[in-house]
Write a structure and sequence with these properties.
This protein has 2 domains: 132 residues, conserved putative lor/sdh protein from methanococcus maripaludis s2 fold (Beta Barrel); 276 residues, no CATH class. Strand 16 and strand 17 form a beta hairpin. The chain is an alpha+beta fold and 581 residues long. It is elongated and about 135 Å long.
Length: 581
């Protein structure tokens, strides 16, 4: 057989051996000509892929921290331990938290007592104006003598207290809505994420701005209205720290714990499964709605205050005309200076509302002394240590829900046009030999790097519930970006110069350059959509030429389109003349 082969080669007859599947062939020319490595253009499926490297990350992960400042009393878990939703992670020493609750309850009792004294002083003034008994008996307008049950001021007082409570509640809701909008919009890809809506009705309030919460102190009384023109002070906008002059702004209660646990549930920052993301636009609309509700509540309060202030002025004037002595203007605090004004009653009620909110916060802090896991998963990090201080909002435990994984990879901006959500991907975690299937679930809009090239985060969701994976480990990712079928050649046979693509066709013992249109480009095969027919042979390499070198004489086309020793990716070269035109 070998003797026959050499006889054919000596006679100048080419012997072609075709490799199965790939369409690759080898042509042995006569001793006086070059020897080529050839490939046949054949119909085939071509798959384009994008190889990347990413990091395995649990889909659900909770960074859990205590909701209040305190000293860690006990830690109940350790890294690597599996926990269920609601399971205890650690506890704070409740001594200081219980003391804070007792102090808040005492402040609330004092604030409620001050409101009661205000009402008594006003009722006393109204009773004296009707009977004159206060003046004849020498009793003080500020005494704690119980007023008659049928006091004409009682409905007006209750209307003011109710309107003040509604204004305080509206203010707390507006502050909470703004805080949520700031958090949501801070992560949105917008140049100006912070919402700043303002309703148009007068007096034109601005966005509520949370301020440090003062303690429940006794406010100074507002200026008393004149005897003939009772008029309350102007309403503040939502940006003020209190809903009425001299009032103490009620603090926003802590959010309700999200963990599924018993009465002593702690809070965490878990990404709950199935929870829809709150958009910046929706959060901004809630801020606007809360501001409008606050404005309406303040306007209603203003009307109630005007009515009560007018009634107090008339009561004081009636007392003077009935011989009750030198009248005291209704601008005091309920003591010897006269009855409490309408504005003072509203301010004291605001202080009571603030004290009640502080009690709620203290109760939540005490309940949150026991911290529980908001999700089921594995403890991957513990930073809390018994006897050390923990700050509210800091992460004490990290819980990874190992029921679902994703891979986050960084893709250069030049490769982003190839990607779209839903594309299939193959993931091979480090240390394993079996690839996992997945798909592209998100493509980042904000770059993760500022170098060159700029990269964007691309997330690959893994199918099913793979086991044995380690959060934070690396994985090889192969994303399928395109797939098509048609006439194809090995990718190494296609040569590009800008947007121009060519192949070298070998036919009739000669090589010529053919311009082609390229379709799907894979790592092994490239689809040719025009310029080449199935069965034609293309040159991969000239085996008679030396391997590629840095010698300029063996690189690129010469003058007039003539190539001298043009190099090929397969390692060989060939001399040919480019077709004219």
């Amino acid at each position: 057989m070998g003797t026959r082969f050499w006889r054919l080669a000596a006679a100048g007859i080419a012997v072609v051996i075709v490799a199965a599947g790939a369409g690759t062939a080898y042509a042995a020319m006569s001793s006086s000509g070059p020897s080529y490595r050839l490939a046949s253009a054949t119909p085939a499926y071509v798959t384009a892929t994008l190889p990347e490297t990413g990091t395995l990350t649990p889909v659900h992960q909770a960074d859990v921290g205590f909701a209040a400042d305190g000293t860690v009393q006990a830690v109940a878990v350790k890294p690597g331990q599996h926990v269920t939703a609601g399971q205890r992670l650690g506890t704070l020493d409740p001594t200081s938290l219980q003391g804070a609750l007792t102090a808040a309850q005492s402040a609330l009792a004092s604030a409620n007592l001050q409101v009661s004294n205000d009402i008594v002083s006003q009722d006393t003034a109204a009773a004296a104006s009707g009977t004159g008994s206060a003046a004849s008996s020498g009793s003080s307008p500020g005494s704690s003598t119980a007023p008659p049950p049928a006091s004409a001021l009682r409905p007006l007082q209750q209307a003011v207290l109710s309107a003040q409570r509604k204004a305080d509640s509206a203010l707390a809701q507006a502050r909470a809505a703004l805080a949520q909008a700031k958090q949501v919009c801070a992560a949105a890809p917008s140049p100006n994420p912070t919402p700043s809506p303002s309703p148009t009705p007068s007096p034109g309030p601005s966005s509520p701005s949370p301020a440090p919460l003062p303690g429940p102190t006794s406010p100074s009384p507002a200026p008393s209205p004149g005897p003939t023109s009772p008029s309350p002070a102007p309403l503040p906008g939502p940006s003020s720290s209190a809903p009425w002059p001299g009032a103490t702004a009620p603090p926003s209660p802590r959010p309700t714990p999200t963990a599924a646990a018993g009465p002593a549930a702690g809070t965490g920052t878990a990404l709950a499964p199935g929870t829809a993301a709150v958009t910046c636009l929706a959060a901004t609309q809630r801020v606007l709605a809360a501001e409008i509700a606050l404005l309406q509540a303040q306007q209603a309060l203003s009307g109630r205050l005007t009515a009560l202030a007018g009634a107090l002025v008339k009561a004081v004037a009636a007392k003077s005309s009935s011989g009750g002595g030198d009248p005291a203007s209704p601008g005091g605090t309920g003591g010897s200076g006269g009855p409490a004004s309408a504005a003072q009653l509203a301010a004291d009620q605001a202080s009571a509302d603030a004290a009640a909110a502080q009690v709620t916060v203290a109760q939540q802090d005490l309940a949150a002394a026991t911290l529980v896991s908001p999700i089921s998963g594995t403890v991957v990090a513990v930073s809390a240590t018994p006897g050390t201080a923990e700050t509210s909002g800091s992460t004490a435990f990290v819980i990874a829900g190992l029921d679902a994984y994703e891979v986050v990879t960084q893709v250069p901006v030049t490769d982003l046009p190839q990607l779209k959500t839903g594309q299939r991907a193959s993931v091979l975690p480090d240390g394993t030999s079996t690839p996992l299937s997945g798909s592209v679930v998100s493509i980042g809009l904000i770059p993760d790097s500022t170098g060159s090239p700029v990269t964007y985060p691309v997330t690959i969701g893994l199918a099913g519930q793979p086991s044995g994976l380690r959060p934070g480990s690396y994985a090889g990712v192969t994303i399928t970006t395109a797939r098509s079928s048609g006439v194809s050649v090995p990718t190494s046979a296609v040569h590009r110069s800008g947007h121009r693509a060519t192949v070298i066709v070998f036919a009739g013992g000669k090589a010529r350059v053919a311009k082609v249109t390229v379709g799907t480009v894979g790592p092994v095969m490239t689809r040719i959509t025009a310029g080449l027919r199935a069965g034609e042979q293309v040159v991969l390499a000239n085996l008679s030429q030396p391997l590629p070198s840095s010698n300029p004489a063996n690189q690129g086309p010469g003058p007039g389109g003539r190539f001298f020793g043009g190099q090929f990716p397969a390692g060989g070269s060939i001399n040919f003349v480019a077709p004219s035109g």
